[in-house]
Amino acid sequence: MPEASITVEVVPVLPDAVRRRLSRAKELRRMATWANHAAATEIRAAARELARMELSLRDIGSILGVSHQRAHQLVSYGTEPEKR
């Protein structure tokens, strides 16, 4: 068999404590991804509710702690046609 066709995979044997920590880290990352998505959904909903109350984008931004430009994006998310 030619040397170029041989593949070697090295799999380290990790201590149980390390494997548990890596597993926990993976789970926490998954939870963080979910939490970030949920938080983004909630801030968009809050922005839209404030807009329905006829607050200005500057006021919405101030309440949410974002710029008025970002407030516009949050209020408009999913309502504007995609630009190409």
Compact overview of the structure:
This protein has 84 residues and is mainly α.
Topology:
Blueprint: H1 16-52, H2 57-64, H3 68-76
Helix pairs in contact: 1-2, 1-3, 2-3
Protein name: RNA polymerase sigma-70 region 4 domain-containing protein
User: How far apart are the first and last residues' alpha carbons, in Å?
Assistant: 53 Å
Total count of strands: 0
Helix residue percentage? 55-70%
The number of helical segments is 3
Binned strand content: under 5%
Q: What's the main sheet like?
A: none
What are the low-pLDDT stretches, counting only 5+ consecutive residues below 50? none
Based on Cα principal axes, name the global outline.
elongated
Average pLDDT figure? 92
Order of helices and strands: HHH
Round the Cα radius of gyration to an integer and report it: 24 Å
The helix/strand class is: mainly alpha
Organism: Phytoactinopolyspora halophila
Protein name: RNA polymerase sigma-70 region 4 domain-containing protein
